[in-house]
Amino acid sequence: MRTDEEAVNIRFIATIVMVATIGGFMFGYDSGVINGTQKGLEAAFDLGRFGIGVNVGAILVGSSIGAFSAGRLADRIGRRSVMILAAVLFVGSALLAGAAPSSSVFIFARIIGGLGVGAASVISPVYISEVTPAAIRGRLSSVQQVMIITGLTGAFVANFFLARYAGGSTADFWLGEKAWRWMFWLQAIPATIYFFALLGIPESPRYLVVKGRDAEAEAVLTRLFGPATAARKVGEIRASLAGDHHKPKLSDLISKATGRIRPIVWAGIGLAVFQQLVGINVVFYYGATLWEAVGFSEDYALQTNILSGVLSIAACLFTIATVDRIGRKPLLLIGSAGMAVTLATVAYAFSTAVTGAGGAVSLPGHNGLIALVAANLYVIFFNASWGPIMWVMLGEMFPNQIRGSGLAVAGFAQWIANALISVSFPSLAVSPGLSVTYFGYAFFAAVSFFFVRAMVTETRGRELEDMIG
């Protein structure tokens, strides 16, 4: 390590990373809270399978818009300002979704929340990558996925206890309101904490340099890395921007040399899309419904969600410990191979499902256990690789000039793929069925292996100013 980097303020960096990743927690909580509320939504709004898919998927409409808008907006008003806006959206969505008198109001509330989720999903990794040293950037950026899973698990735990103590998600609870409504209202607590915590962290120094606020950028960098490194960094950031010093814009994604979209942009889009095509959010959004569909009780299905969340966090901790040693690309390859095998195993187990005389569905013999173990191994492989690594790479792989625009396009693609998988699942689970659907996810996991080999370049240990594409 260079001597001028010995002044790195690890405590300050860790503090602002933890604040920024509360956005990841809210991303996870707002995405996962729907898992366990579907019976309540169905009863309150008289929804069929398609209606459930639309209400569950409404957040994804907002998320895709939020992800695309946030990248460009962050280039205009700053990374921290966009995260503050996301916090406000989280609070408003939580309160309105819980109080929704109709499906249309609920959908609107979830779209608002989705705007916050989409913004937080792309801006938190960018902010973290722009305030952390290259040597530990992967480790600290991976905290985002830990917080996403912690948020998901927090939602699962809250939903489980609310449903248990109320006597079911559709039973009356505090103040005579249904338990499923309280599942949404509780989101307002962490969202409010997120808002006030953001007021205490600085703006990204790289954004400040882009805006010509070099003195402010140097002041922030001095707090992060010490005065010697700060002065040098400002010069490096300035040199990495466009030669004519124009402000970042969407057209920068097109190479002036070839007139085509830069290869690095296609790599980012591919990473974002494949992370969703392997079907992970089917587990996050429909876990309770999925396990009930193959014979589990509501109570046991909600407990299974919690188990998946705990295993996910453990897998992410493994990634934090290894990502800056092993590298990004090897972890992605291992994850792709592991997910392909475990998803195919789940698909096989579901293919043996039988329906009893009373219409109850079950998996014969040990196939229920096989499905449960394989599904959780799949969750482990995902969260040890594609879960955190995709966000790490999107936050660091783009050159400074196109980082906001690259994130906008990749984030939009990620949420569109998320919506495609999530909204289609309820119908696909009926026809062609769970088995065929999971074989499809296994196929995409296998394809992702070859995509990574061909398109992804290792970024471990490289400074953001050294990124090319």
Report on the architecture of this protein:
- A hairpin with a 5-residue loop joins strand 1 (354-355) and strand 2.
- Strands 1-2 form a two-stranded antiparallel ribbon.
- Mean pLDDT is 86; it is low at 1-5.
- The protein has a single domain (7-201, 241-466), classed as MFS general substrate transporter like domains (Growth Hormone, Chain: A).
- It starts with 9 loop residues before the first helix and ends in a 14-residue tail after the last helix.
- The protein is mainly alpha-helical.
- The protein is 75% helix and 1% strand.
- The protein contains 19 helices and two strands.
- It has helices at 10-20, 22-32, 38-45, 49-77, 79-99, 103-131, 137-166, 179-185, 188-198, 205-210, 214-225, 227-240, 263-277, 280-293, 298-326, 328-350, 367-383, 386-396, 403-455; strands at residues 354-355, 361-362.
What is the architecture at the second tier of CATH? Up-down Bundle
Kindly report the CATH topology: Growth Hormone, Chain: A
The topology string of helices and strands comes to HHHHHHHHHHHHHHHHEEHHH
| Helical stretch tally | 19
Number of domains: 1
Please sum up the structure shown:
This protein has 469 residues and is mostly helical. It has helices at residues 10-20, 22-32, 38-45, 49-77, 79-99, 103-131, 137-166, 179-185, 188-198, 205-210, 214-225, 227-240, 263-277, 280-293, 298-326, 328-350, 367-383, 386-396, 403-455, and strands spanning 354-355, 361-362. It has a single domain (7-201, 241-466), classed as MFS general substrate transporter like domains (Growth Hormone, Chain: A, Up-down Bundle).
